[in-house]
Amino acid sequence: MDDEAAILSAIAAHPEENTPRLAYADWLDDHAAHLPDPDSARIRAELIRVQCEINKYEHLPSTEQQGYVDLYRRQDAILTRHRRDLLGSLGDDLTPLELIFDRGFVTELKLDAERFLKHAGAIAALKPLPAVRVSDVARWLDELSAHSHRLALVSAAHMQSERRPEPSTLSPAEVWSVFVECWPWDRLRSLNLEGCQIGDEGVQRLAGSEALPLLTILDLSGNEISDAGVRLLVNSPLWPRLRYLVLGANPISDDGAFALADAPPTAIQNLNLKRTGIDTAGRNRLLGREGWKVDLF
Questions:
Q1: pTM for the whole thing?
Q2: Of residues 180, 179, 238, 229, the one with CA closest to residue 201
Q3: Phi and psi at residue 191, in whole multiples of 5°?
């Protein structure tokens, strides 16, 4: 492992520490003349140092932070004027609200499936790899299937898009094909299937496999899931790993509530059951399960 790779590995292993990040800034300055774009390397090094310095003062009250206003101004100037230096062509397609820089490194990207496909190579080259949140996935299934290996980059997937008035639907066969059979979702921690109409059979296809090893956040709202689908979910391999589950706007009754309340141990901390058919008896059983925050209204 060369020096650069070793420093980047240390940053990935210790994301809370500034020392390896500052070491990388020094490395960039020392090697800038021999890198493909010396100016971009030096700008990146400056951003790392500026944001690491800001990090020292972020715990202070806002009135005290004002004493370091020059640092904040320099950070804003770098992020505004040097987006292409920091991100290449990716910087032209993302707004400031769609990416997060933390102490010189991209830690989160939010983009639709179209732009994800366009820039997947550039995203894969980011080190350490940031969280990658992709929306509008359902409308781009055919194109994504041709580049399915790129989905190993995705940490959060939202099937719908806020820009489209009508939701996209997925058949149980598509659920199986996309999330179980052949597509790699090695980093996927959050999956939003709101409004996809997958039904109980789709739940069985999704939850009945070990294909999503890191998934802990699941939104199944508005999917025509019945009490039978709830029972399939709570008895699936996926159930013990879930931490946040949304089942709102589904035709779930007290029987489904009882199945949830009596379910095997799980990591769930928050359960959303808004706009279901659960009545008083089911609500009382759910609220009696310790350790859960249950949203029913």
A1: 0.92
A2: 229
A3: -135, 125
